[in-house]
Records
---
Amino acid sequence: MATAECRKVMSNLPWFRTCLAAVIVAAGFASRVAGEDRGASIQTLGARPELPDGHQAPLCIVLPGGPGRMPQATGALRALGNDLAKRGWIVVVPVSPDGASFFGAAAKQVLQVMDKMAEDPKVRPGKVLLAGLSNGGIAALQVASMAPDRVSGVIAVPGVLHPAVRLSGLKHLPVYIRIGADDYLKWGETYAPMVRQLKNVGARLDAKLLQGIGHGVPIEWDEIDRWIERELGALAPAKTMHTEIALPSTAARPRVWTSRKGSKVTARLSKIEGNQVVLLRANKKPLRILRTDLSPEDDAYLTSLIKTAEELPGKAITRGDRH
């Protein structure tokens, strides 16, 4: 029996579904979201950190690979979801009700999950991190392009651009992509043109083509943690460690800072903490700004400072608990 046929038969066995459900509920939680487009409810698996009363955490939706059925959703939870929950995220993984991946017309179902999870009192209001494996990476990029005002960033390991992606929606959005050069789906061949497209549209791209790696790219948590701290900052969980950059002396000089809306302020850079910048104006009053609210020129300047700090000997980057 072919592998695909075997999986189909196994997934239809009642005891097999029950065992899978038991594993997931033990790891986190399970729920259902009413589906409007495909006439079926969307089961979601997930995991969440232990939160004190009155505390909230940001949401991350992890999109499974392949057809998005229970085995793929289980794999996505194990590969990404559980570790993200340990880092303070509330994680949900939707399960496809009909074996169709969550891209194309099905991408709307992810927005429905987002709407439903916004009703959870433990979910912190605001933007959602999207992450995905394989077809889930494709879906994460498409969903983000459809609703960029609702998304803080995208992790696609791996992922490529679907024809339905609205490239303009990815402008200024933090995007983390890893693709294997030896991917049997030939995704490595699409890497260079995809990177050009994303850079041309202004995405905040962190992309690598991994030599000697196939379709199953490794999850490098050190790199992902640094990316989350650098790009998401205040949008990341409050429990996570934050990064404070030790600035070179040249950064102490006052300069004109410009927002994306065109407003200007003359101030000196006090410190960089993740995706937040603290400026000191002439009156010595601090001004805290998200990097995503600054002009592309100012953001490029900050990126160059961070790169310089990382190359300095000694402890150029210090870490501490965010309270």
---
Amino acid sequence: MEANQIGELYAPVMIPDAPDEGETILMISTRPYESNDWEFILGMAARLTIGMRPWRDRTQWLKAVEGWLTSSVEAHPTETMVIVALNAREERVGFASVTSNKHFTGQPQAYIGELASTEEAESQGVGRALVAACEEWSRANGYSLITLTTGAGNDRALGFYRHLGYVDEDVTLTKQL
């Protein structure tokens, strides 16, 4: 399937795993980005600062995030697939973007660029549904690997991705001078 062919990939997703303690799983559906989703996605930029290290400038970080979001939406659906998660009331509760890139070895892979849920929808299966949709897009486009980057200080995200089978591959180390 070509990257710009959506097909029937974004039907409602029931999360097969048992919820973690204290977690509620709702029926979450995912669908491709529509132009009326832009304000919602842009409004989620602050959610992508979770785990930001204190030596980073929040204003510059948010500006960079807004640039990533703009680039993802502008490349949708030909180079990037932007996916929106909806709850049973059809309210937007999260989004993700997935695209293709190459590992430094030249091996092609899919890449989850951004993924965030609303604060109110945390621990309700939104992230799982979005990851499942990104993985489905990746398989449909012939990728055998999918990668993502998250902040080392975002312990919750790190635990979430590891729970889904993602493993550490590359690590960036920083030192303040």
---
Amino acid sequence: MIFSLKTAELFLRIIFIIAAYIPVVTLAGYMRARIAKKMGDSLPEDFGFLSLNPLVHMSFFSMFVTIICQLMGGSLFVGFGNYIPLDRDAIVGRFRWTKIFFVQMADVIVPFILSVLTAFFLVVLYSYKAVLLISDPLSFRSIATILGTSASYFTITGVSFLLALYVISYALTVLNFLINTCSLLGYALRYGRENRSYGDGIELLSILIFWIFLGPSIDKGIKFLILSMADVLTSTVGIA
């Protein structure tokens, strides 16, 4: 055989990662541009990011790094898209810092919601097996073992895509959370220093304190939601 089973599984995993990466970064980037425009910042639209064209949002560097890591046997998923510039000074009015926060964190909230929705579908389909699937994603042999010998190739393929969607969404959630939190803190400090109005940052500081404490719990929160959904579905709907 020219390709071993392990090599074939690796290339299939890369294909699923790319297939999942495209819609995740497209939706995240589009929603950031849409929310920015809604809040008064038209810079993302001026740069062409208010579009559902995947080529606008895809970062080929991100895809390249992820593919290389997978080929080298690593498990790194670099899920970020193209950088979307913001003109936060253009956002004015009441609750200005809250508006800036939602614009900045739009590409965190969107993939987080996608990861939860993907987990929900897996729980609806497979109940507690979904927890085992998510604990070892993108392994065809593990998926086949968990689902059982009766699972068809079509089923394994569909579940593999859902798991890739979950992994990329989660990776983008964590990555953008770290980047955007640091960026927002930096902007708040610069704004306060330049305008000598540190009191204006109380609203933002309160949000960020909550956000920073929430951050380490994202992974636990997702797993808790999955377990809770599995428990509810199993006990009330009778999904086994």
---
Amino acid sequence: MGGSMPVLPGHRFQVDLKLSENYAFDVEFGVDGEAFRMDEPAPLGEETGPNAARVLAAAVGNCLSASLIFCLRRGKVEPISLETRVEGEMVRDEDGRLRIERLDVSIDPRIHEEDRRRLEHCLEHFESFCIVTQSVRAGIDVQVDVTAEVVEDEAPRSELAAV
């Protein structure tokens, strides 16, 4: 699938993950470019790429930053620079499982003095246009379907483990 599609209501997208080794997955986004590696930190994985929590944080930070840039550019403001930092906080839920409790996003645009009023206007509106952040805030309906392919081993597991 080449190039990206416009985002419209009813538009569906697909992301494919393939187990590479241990807990590392190669992720294909369906747009031109190389596969993206995700991995878990030790002791599960080898941290050869970001884990899912960091990718979620990056998605929120990217979406908010892009929404702010979009608003500024619509107002004919070209920022000198823009940097974003997302800090996540992990907690354990009542069952002892790790969860992302909060994400703190700091966006630091650098603009010219004459653009201050247009920045203030954008600061009032840009968050509501961020697809990812608003979806996370509202809670995303996630449906899971596992379709296992069961194959007969040529050798019993006990023989495979001895090799």
